[in-house]
From TrEMBL:
Domain of life the protein comes from: Bacteria
Pfam families (alphabetical): Aldedh (PF00171)
Domain Aldehyde dehydrogenase residues, every copy: 18-469
Name assigned to this protein: NAD-dependent succinate-semialdehyde dehydrogenase
Length: 476
């Protein structure tokens, strides 16, 4: 850890013990360090402390909360290099991407620091002369979150920042594979003046146990989860017992569509950005490529040529574009999907060569058909299956043929087609002639079984606020 200049960012690390959690580098298999874990009793006690801290935090003015969040944002940016290196060590993504995620994660803190002062209520014309009607917004209370390993900083800040801005306390479980950068970000929050009992991160090998506490503890009134649809369903079922507020950002199966009037060079550029960042391990990554028959061969040729230039390796090495996948199980699943597609008739345009360790070579598959498993399942790896289509109607039907509805992308220069297809796609987000759509200023979220609620934008803070209706009577 000699690469981390700000030693306070790793001050939470400990010596190995029976209760500590080991964190390893997926690129090398080397031990990064150990962190302490918390028992059930300790986590339940943390919830009680968060409950008490929230009552005090709620009394702070929105302007005061905003000032503290602004200091946290600045500390994140001041430590961008160290946070990025820490993320690459534990998660594997290229350093350039890690640095970008730090800035992206910090942007939510900056955004919601500003939104804290804009959680307006309203006055409503009353139906009777002796009444006045108004609404105010109040924090839901203690908010809990469970976050994934693929964006270990951004998925914490995208939830913690609006919760704290709204006046909630926040307790979260970062992924066991990647807790270090999340804990380091929390340390910066404490340095900024956020009370330790107001923002709490807990770690335990049993994700199921923490999930049960978060879903059933009576003093937790809100749960935000980013992860698989399968786990999201279980959490929703448990939260239903207490009728908790929930936000769910679940699985995706994003189509990337290239129409015959598209700028193919721009489409290839967008496809590379959308598919291969973080080695294909994002919920909004392009998962299946639909290309019009008239430009299919030309697109595949340009796409495969670009993919061949992507360098695989340790994310700390210069020029690396593709890091490792997160674990052996993930690699096995990716390779199994490739092999199954080949057996069903798909061809390899590039890639699919054996790689050591947890690396998977960026791969483009052609002559893929809609009925293959690689089309219906979330790949979560650097593999691009390319499917032909011949009409807009056929395309929309195939693109919507999934239980998921998170992100989608298409390239076209026909304004009429752009509006029709954008409206017809059953997805919460649509990238039009653009492969990267995530930003703190826009509402992030899906439809169908891809989730509930929105993160970012002005909608993001509303997920942590209750609307209270005030009726003033007897005003004669």
């Amino acid at each position: 850890m000699e690469q981390i200049k700000n030693r306070s960012l790793i001050g939470f690390m400990c010596e190995p013990s029976e209760t500590s959690l080991a964190v390893t580098n997926p690129a090398t298999g080397e031990l990064v360090g150990h962190i302490p874990t918390q028992s059930r009793e300790e986590i339940e006690a943390a919830v009680e402390r968060a409950y008490a801290a929230q009552k005090l935090w709620q009394k702070q003015t929105a302007k005061a909360r905003a000032a503290v969040l602004r200091r946290w944002y600045q500390l994140m940016m001041d430590n961008q290099q160290d946070l990025g290196r820490l993320m690459t060590l534990e998660q594997g993504k290229p350093l350039k991407e890690s640095m970008g995620e730090v800035a992206y994660g910090a942007s939510f803190i900056e955004w919601f620091a500003e939104e804290a002062k804009r959680s307006y209520g309203e006055t409503i014309p009353a139906p009777m002369g002796d009444r006045r009607i108004a609404t105010i917004k109040q924090p839901v209370g203690v908010a809990a979150a469970i976050t994934p390993w693929n964006f270990p900083i951004a998925m914490i800040t995208r939830k913690a920042a609006p919760a704290l801005a709204a006046g909630c306390s926040f307790i979260a479980k970062p992924a066991n594979q990647t807790p270090l950068s999340a804990l380091a970000s929390a340390e910066l929050a404490y340095q900024a003046g956020i009370p330790r009992d107001l923002l709490i991160l807990v770690v335990n090998p049993s994700s199921r146990m923490i999930g049960e506490i978060f879903c059933t503890h009576p003093k937790i009134r809100k749960l935000s989860f980013t992860g698989s649809t399968q786990v999201g369903r279980l959490l929703l079922e448990q939260c239903a017992q207490d009728v908790k507020r929930t936000s769910m950002e679940l699985g995706g199966n994003a189509p990337f569509i290239v129409f015959d009037d598209a700028d193919l060079d721009k489409a290839v550029e967008g496809a590379i950005a959308s598919k291969f960042r973080n080695a294909g391990q994002t919920c909004v990554c392009a998962n299946r490529f639909y290309v019009h028959d008239n430009v299919y061969d030309a697109f595949v040729d340009k796409f495969a040529t670009a993919v061949k230039t992507l360098k695989i390796g340790n994310g700390l090495e210069e020029g690396v574009a593709i890091g490792p996948v997160i674990e052996e199980k993930a690699k096995d699943n990716i390779l199994q999907l490739i092999e199954q597609a080949k057996q069903q008739g798909a061809s390899v345009a590039c890639g699919d060569h054996p790689q050591p360790g947890l690396f998977v070579e960026p791969t483009v598959l052609t002559e893929v058909t809609q009925d293959m498993a690689i089309v219906s399942e979330e790949i979560f790896g650097p593999v691009a299956p390319v499917i032909r289509f011949r009409s807009d109607e056929e395309l929309v039907q195939m693109a919507n043929d999934t239980i998921y509805g998170l992100a989608s992308y298409f390239y076209s220069r026909d304004i009429g087609r752009i509006w029709k297809v954008a409206e017809a796609l059953e997805y919460g987000m649509v990238g039009i002639n653009e492969g990267i759509i995530s930003t703190e200023v826009a509402p992030f979220g899906g439809v169908k079984q891809s989730g509930i609620g929105r993160e970012g934008a002005k909608q993001g803070i509303d997920e942590y606020l209750d609307i209270k209706y005030l009726c003033f009577g007897g005003l004669e």
